[in-house]
Design goal:
Length: 210
């Protein structure tokens, strides 16, 4: 069981989607994650929305001309995603067991993998490093992993942060990824240390010279 289910109970897919609908209705930008990806990769790039939920990020990037695929462990969330945008491929999988490259469709490696909405801190305890390794494996050489998540209880839906930003960087390094950018928001505000409470990290998969 992942941390989200264990500590908060799994919300309904419609309840989860409604949260962002209310955000958009209030006039707030509900697509900051997609806008961030746009600054990092050109339209037409292949993007994996890992832990896609109801598909909000992938659907917006698809609208902006990106070749998107979504994956999530929650079938009810994926049901809403498929209904909202049937042209995007949606896959059911745990990130710690992810193997889309070996799927019958033989998907090519991705230019960008994005994990928004506290995906990494809400994985099942002890699976984080394996999930990062598998996400890295789905990137082409020089591809980017873009992950945003809280670093304290104020920025997480659970009681405390399950790991530090240094631990996250170590998992990325072990998965052959090197840091490129770190911000405190999806809008690119400077990151001034873990006391900020939230981090958006960009890591690049190392391209081996042969």
């Amino acid at each position: 069981m992942n941390r989200w289910e264990e500590l908060t109970g799994r919300p309904s897919a419609r309840e989860y989607a409604a949260r962002f609908e209310r955000l958009a209705a209030s006039g707030a930008d509900a697509h900051g994650e997609a806008s961030c990806v746009v600054t990092l990769a050109p339209a037409g790039s292949r993007v994996l929305d890992a832990g896609c939920g109801t598909g909000r990020v992938a659907i917006e990037l698809h609208r902006r001309g990106y070749d998107c695929v979504g994956v999530d462990v929650d079938d009810s969330m994926l049901g809403l995603a498929r209904a909202a945008q049937p042209d995007v491929p949606w896959y059911h999988a745990d990130l710690a067991e992810l193997d889309l490259l070996g799927s019958p469709e033989e998907l090519a490696p991705f230019d960008v993998v994005v994990t928004a909405g506290n995906v990494i801190p809400l994985l099942a305890p002890g699976t984080e490093s394996e999930a990062i390794r598998r996400l890295s494996r789905h990137l082409r050489p020089d591809g980017l992993l873009v992950a945003g998540f809280g670093l304290d209880a104020a920025h997480l839906p659970i009681r405390e942060a399950p790991f530090t930003i240094d631990e996250y960087d170590a998992w990325c390094a072990a998965a052959e990824m090197t840091p490129v950018h770190r911000w405190s928001t999806w809008d690119g505000d400077p990151f001034a240390g873990s006391d900020v409470g939230y981090a958006v990290s960009v890591h690049r998969r190392v391209a081996h010279v042969t």
